[in-house]
């Protein structure tokens, strides 16, 4: 099957319009060889007739019927007025008939075959039986070759259509499976995680009102938990909506114009937890496209959470986000906590792995590791060509 399809493609390429100059050059060289080596003192007429036959066979790329009739006519002229046997015209007529049969088929091929057979019958050689045999063979062989080639092309086209249909069906099945999986995940997120977070938010709200005389520090913590829980619910609803709609993407989580405020909120939340955070944020950070804006926010949130978790509550962190002249975003978060073993900050979680994946999906560069007495996360997000700001 593979070999036959390769032969079919080769034949299509050889008979294609792009290969016509090469094909004519090869046929002209072969015609010259026939006239020089097989012809008996060919005349100027024989040479002109041979080259005309070669040129006429080239018409088969666009006008196969005309090429078949014209080469048969040249063959008749060669029989009548040529000094040597019209070998080149015979070959050209056979090629033209085979190409006509391969490209068109039907009554056109039969008509052209009849004309070619008549050309041989009009040139008496031997008895009538010999003439009839020669006419039938010289007309039938090109018909058979062209018919086989036409059938091969038809099989190749049918195979291509079947392969395309199979690919489309497979794509639809994959899309349906992914949509079902996304829907199942969305349902579990809504029914399990959102339910528990809603319950937590509700209970924290009740606790806040049940102890109005509690110490201010405790009330501040409860308010922060309540606000964080409500924001988590909002993000979960967005995520559920995105999972249920396969055509959506993460851009709905955050508008670039809201990035400075979201970064300031993440920094302020870390400070309320007791961390000292120094933030140096570029004023034009909001010019990033939505995907890079969301990635920068997640880098900030996860990075500050890692500082609080691994560097201790009394740690200090320095956050720097700059926008280069080419529009590249540079993110650096460094802390002064103990870095410990190299695996300490990676242990037990996929936070850094997820950040690296986010950055690399945007063709960025991500690195993390010990820096002085603490730890540093650095990412560079290149400007995305064609991305809306």
Mean pLDDT score: 80
Task: Assign an overall shape.
Answer: elongated
- Assembly type of the chains comes to single chain
Number of strands: 5
Structural class: alpha+beta
Helical content, roughly? Answer: 55-70%
Descriptive overview:
- With 389 residues, the chain is α+β, with helices and mostly antiparallel strands.
- 66% of the residues lie in helices and 9% in strands.
- It is built from 11 helices and 5 strands.
- The protein has helices at residues 2-14, 20-38, 44-58, 64-81, 87-103, 106-121, 128-210, 216-244, 259-272, 290-311, 351-361; strands spanning 276-281, 316-323, 329-335, 365-371, 374-381.
- The protein has a 5-stranded mixed beta sheet, covered by helices on one side.
- Helix 4 (64-81) runs antiparallel to helix 5 (87-103).
- The longest helix has 83 residues, at 128-210.
- The protein is elongated and about 125 Å long.
- 26% of the residues are buried.
Any key phrases for this structure?
single chain; elongated; 389 residues; 5-stranded mixed β-sheet; 66% helix; alpha+beta
List the helices and strands and how they pair.
Layout: H1 2-14, H2 20-38, H3 44-58, H4 64-81, H5 87-103, H6 106-121, H7 128-210, H8 216-244, H9 259-272, E1 276-281, H10 290-311, E2 316-323, E3 329-335, H11 351-361, E4 365-371, E5 374-381
Parallel strand pairs: 1-2
Antiparallel strand pairs: 2-3, 3-5, 4-5
Helix pairs in contact: 1-7, 2-3, 3-4, 3-5, 4-5, 4-6, 5-6, 5-7, 6-7, 7-8, 9-10, 10-11
